[in-house]
């Protein structure tokens, strides 16, 4: 006798099906042109099913960031300076593994919604990571300016990389990010 899947698995499958439909549609026609009807037609689910899981297409888009939130959470316990470079590497690797999803999430029209959530998570992580260092001694640059710079440099490289079909590996991109940003990080962290 075949065992029935748990409702949690069914819910996860339905949500993933809807997210995959959204990603495919963003790649095909852009975020702004997509309607909920397009998504449910592509996923072959009913409107009631869609609204049982998500409020609207933006809510569905944001659900694609759950794995990223988990990644930031796993790096909370790391306090070494290497944690910044480990995090950026993991993010580049995740983007490489989930290239189509990232391309869709960072597609020009969807970027505002996606970047806002990504920015909040990454900046919160960076502020938490460097807060103690900035509290110990007076720094030449305020913490909020410092973390905005780190985030902006990362986001700029990530979006360029995705927009140009990832011409370098995740490891290479992380090395480039490190080479560009690490001297500034060391100058700020060691200053004072």
Give a verbal description of the structure.
The protein is 76% helix and 0% strand. It is mostly helical and 192 residues long. The protein has 2 domains: 7-61, Orthogonal Bundle (Arc Repressor Mutant, subunit A), CATH 1.10.10.60; 64-190, no CATH class. The N and C termini lie far apart (69 Å).
Count up the domains. Answer: 2
Could you give the order of the helices and strands?
HHHHHHHHHH
Global structural class: mainly alpha
First-residue to last-residue Cα separation: 69 Å
What's the arrangement of secondary structure elements?
Elements: H1 7-29, H2 36-43, H3 47-53, H4 57-63, H5 66-75, H6 82-97, H7 99-105, H8 111-136, H9 143-163, H10 170-190
Helix pairs in contact: 1-2, 1-4, 1-7, 5-6, 5-8, 6-7, 6-10, 8-9, 9-10
List keywords for this structure.
single chain; 2 domains; 192 residues; Arc Repressor Mutant, subunit A; mainly alpha; 76% helix
Can I get a quick summary?
This protein has 192 residues and is mainly α. It has helices at residues 7-29, 36-43, 47-53, 57-63, 66-75, 82-97, 99-105, 111-136, 143-163, 170-190. The protein has two domains: 7-61, Arc Repressor Mutant, subunit A (Orthogonal Bundle); 64-190, no CATH class.
